[in-house]
């Protein structure tokens, strides 16, 4: 089965500095919501609700990016859940 590539529509985004403990707490809450199948995303000016199917695709990705001018390294750890509706 092939899919046409469609433009991406960002429905929710939250990016902020948090402590490791705060991030862990957020991920534990997210895990409980994912297990129930109903996820609610909230921030002060936006809110989204989504239902996750029983067997979505799951990806874990760790990237290292190096600034070509400064040599400074940045890491990104991403957890991604994908499904089609």
Automatic annotation (TrEMBL):
Top-level taxonomic group: Archaea
Domain spans labelled Amphi-Trp: 6-84
Name the record gives this protein: Amphi-Trp domain-containing protein
Species of origin: Natronorubrum thiooxidans
